[in-house]
Amino acid sequence: MSAYGRSKLAYEEELRAVSAAVPGTVVRPPIVYGPGDADFLPALLAAVRGGVLPVCGFGPRRCSLIHVDDLCRVLLAAADRGSTVGPRPSSRGIYHAGDGAGHRWQDLAAAVAKLTGHRPPTTVPPPRPVAYAAAWGAETAARVRGRPSALCRDKVRELARPAWICGHERAARELGFTPEVFWPAGLADALRTVPGALPGLARHHPRTGIRPREEPALTTRPRTTRPRSRRAEHLRASPPLFRSPFLDRLTRVHPAVPAALYGPLAVLLVVLAAPRLGWAALAGYALLGYVLWTLTEYWVHRALFHLTPSSARGRRLHWLVHGVHHDHPDDPRRLVMPPLASLVLTGVPFAALHLVLDGGAANAVAAGFTAGYVLYDELHFLLHRPGPPTALGRRLRRHHLRHHFQDDSRGFGVSCPYWDHVFGTAPERTAAGGAATGRPAGGAAAR
């Protein structure tokens, strides 16, 4: 059982302990979805848009659902005529409120893909250690941003279970409750409240199919969304880079992937180096590896990502490598490096280190180098998200946005802006607001 489940069970036990003085009824819903859903539906939609559906563990994973309208109905019925729990452990006064079906995650994602006009995502079963590493990275990023994360290690424990299924038999027998919103229509109803998910479609009620303008005023739920400017839509756009859908999917990467792939590798390198080195030497070599990474980050960005090719083929290749990021800097799936590119960026130095250093020292330097890369990639993602909670985060964000919108020939250090001061490429300060609202980066280096 997860920590969330244990907390729910503890609450029910406390309710039993005071049942003589405070009568209460328990309703146990499964996954709740509907308009305004901030967890379940956004995660499915992100998987569909990214083309990859991670399903923790092997074999089918099934779950039950309930639409928020049905949940409200069963809560009102339980409060009106439901039994109350007693002091002794029993099922009296406890009502499950699920649809009773065992939906596969693949089927739910395929339904969302069909409704939004996407291809069904490819199911990827990450091993549990990789899933835990990704969750740890998401928790760390959430702490840095000061915002909660939908992915955590407790959630991985829940998703690794084969099934989370419940019906509504007792609720039907004692409360007269049966679900009225079936999941395909309910998903469509919820997606219509997500800006851009179903463009051009008006919202229908999931049970009646009536458009809002034909519904009585009391049942209409108006939705107001703030329109985005054309510039904001362009900056966030995610154009295909290849005609092949498979190749194009390889260019879209979830921000947790670098931490999930290279975080365990950095730990393994430390474990391999520790028996051969003392702690002081291990720390010194790891620090050297981190410094080497910061220099690699700076010079690869400056000398490779911002070179100016003369041929049309070279300009096309340069745009694929880095220019697309300057054209669409807010594309959320292209803010971290694809694994194939990062393997080259980390693999070549790793091989070179083992040619010039012995095994223990090479592993320690490689650990610092790898940790520096993970820090860079995750920090780069966070700097493109608004509202860093710390003064350091806001300073790094201003530094990087000047590179994008003020002068793309300066500000090459993302996680290491100090090298810009050392090598004379620090962005020049402009009038207040210039960093955030400045001109788009121009010139051949940005394209």
What does this structure look like?
The protein has 447 residues and is mostly helical. 52% of the residues lie in helices and 5% in strands. It is built from 18 helices and 9 strands. It has helices at 3-17, 40-50, 68-81, 105-116, 128-145, 153-159, 169-175, 183-191, 230-236, 245-250, 257-273, 279-304, 312-327, 339-356, 359-383, 391-405, 418-422, 434-437, and strands at 26-28, 31-33, 52-54, 62-63, 65-67, 94-96, 103-104, 122-124, 163-164. The strands form 4 sheets. A 3-stranded mixed beta sheet has the order 7-4-9. The radius of gyration is 26 Å and the shape is globular. Mean pLDDT is 79; it is low at 200-228 and 431-447.
Summarize the model shown.
The chain has 447 residues and is mainly alpha-helical.
